[in-house]
Amino acid sequence: MKAAGEPEGRDKMELLDAMKKRRSVRSYSEERIPDDVLKTILEAGLYAPTSQNRKPCEFYVVRDRETLQKLAAVKKAGAGMLAVCDTAVAVFADSELADTWIEDASVALTYMHLMAAGLNVGSCWCQLHLRADAEGADAEEAARRIFSVPERFRIVGILALGMPLKETKPRTLSDRDYARIHNVEPAKPQE
Ligand SMILES: Cc1cc2nc3c(=O)[nH]c(=O)nc-3n(C[C@H](O)[C@H](O)[C@H](O)COP(=O)(O)O)c2cc1C
After folding, report:
1. How many separate domains does the chain show?
2. Parent domain of 113
3. Cβ–ligand 1 contact at 80 (below 6 Å)
4. Contact 124 CB / ligand 1 (< 6 Å)
5. Which residues pair with 87 in a beta bridge?
């Protein structure tokens, strides 16, 4: 067993590196994401933990331009990258299988977003849950219709993926607000 904090070698560093350089990337080059790289990103989604190991998520991989453009229109703003990305992964989760569908799908999206960063692929979360299109129609419902998915399948969001058009600047530690970390001290005994 390794002691807490003991370096675990390259893997640990690679994860931290990916976390540090991860940004939301919304502009992509024409270059396709290689199939093996896309497979690894999707595997990261499958490795994501789920409450009670119920695994409610289904991953819909879209590379067809027409469908990508339809997806980009399911919400009023903030979905433009779906129309221009190389691949979109819509994460649906069976709400009858898991009452934690929001959390489970969010963790899966995050795992894929981080894995993409680690593999130098740009990606961006596109929120659909609680969002609507320009006419006020529910974005989740519209997405379900595009994929012909039954109503019990809920969707938090879609991950847009593509090779980055330009370098993104990593966030730095100075972007981080340490005041949001609250160290809870044990209560002092009453005098
Ligand atoms: C829950 C969640 C929902 C998001 N929804 C969208 C979205 O719909 N459209 C979008 O362009 N970016 C979306 N983002 C990306 C955020 O805008 C982005 O993470 C944030 O501005 C910080 O920038 P960074 O990821 O480059 O560090 C979302 C991120 C999260 C975590």
Report:
1. 1
2. 23-165
3. no
4. yes
5. 161
CA 22/CA 117 separation, integer angstroms: 5
How far apart (Å, rounded) are the C-alpha atoms in residues 125 and 91?
A: 11
Q: What is the DSSP secondary structure assignment for residue 53, as one 8-state letter?
A: G
Q: Choose among 94, 166, 84: nearest CA to 126.
A: 84
User: Which tens digit of pLDDT belongs to each residue from 16-55?
Assistant: 889 999 999 999 999 999 999 999 999 999 999 999 999 9
pLDDT tens-place string over residues 57-100: 999 999 999 999 999 999 999 999 999 999 999 999 999 999 99
Q: How far is the CA of 191 from the centre of ligand 1 (A)?
A: 49
User: Which 3-state string (H, E, C) describes 74-114?
Assistant: CCCCCCHHHHHCCEEEEEEEECCCCCCHHHHHHHHHHHHHH
CATH code of the domain containing 92: 3.40.109.10
Residue 131 CA: nearest ligand 1 atom is 8
Residue 133 placed within a domain: yes
Residue 179 covered by a domain: no
